[in-house]
Amino acid sequence: MEHSFNVEIAAQYGIHTAILLKNIHFWIVKNRANEKHFHNGRYWTYNSQKAFSELFPYLTERQVKYTIEKMKKDELILIDNFNENPYDKTSWYALTDKALKLLGDTSEVPETPENADSTKLSYRMDKNVPIDSTKLSHREYKIVSSYNDTDNKPNINNKKKKKTFDEIIEDYTDNEELKADLKEHLRTRKSKKGTLNNRAIELSLKELDKLANTDNQKIQIVRNAIMRGYSSFWPVKDYENSFENQKSSYDIEEYERFNPLEYVLG
Prior knowledge:
By secondary structure, this protein is mainly alpha-helical. The protein is 47% helix and 6% strand.
């Protein structure tokens, strides 16, 4: 969904104000319909500056902070804190009578001769104009909805879930026999208190790809490592007879001194 804003509000107060004001108004209208977050005679919505910058990727946190301060100075929003947790500093926002009038929303504002002329904006029509993000920021353009449910305080970090060791192996090969041997090798490594993290495992699998071209060769290399208790993979001199003749092609002491992967993985 493309973002949009009221052109006349943008012309008078700036594009950033028009964008944030429309988002805040959307959630206040929704909360009013659901009869929630009503405090001090007004309906409120809450969000953090960081969350706003995630919802609008063309605005930095600094720009959001500046815009909110300007909106307050221009008497468009009220800011308060109604969080149950005293340590929660997330700000709550309500629209002033002036802002509601600008938006053509008279649900909370009684129409009187005094406030009827409180704005120079007439014939207010919410004109939806797509935002050209390249004019607002050098960030990569992303089309996202401006109506994400900020009242539920979403996890804006969206950090990628770290893969388990088994998932790394499952992604590495479709060969069930090789999968089983690789998992056994990890258990052996763990029992010896070798280095075990995603990066170390990925490096180990890359080394395995360098040493063998087929799944059968890889299986023999992995089994050789299991039987000898190696924490990394060694080449097998004779793949056909590797289990009949387990003699290594390297001197163990020389290998431990010069093999760089062994140095990394412990």
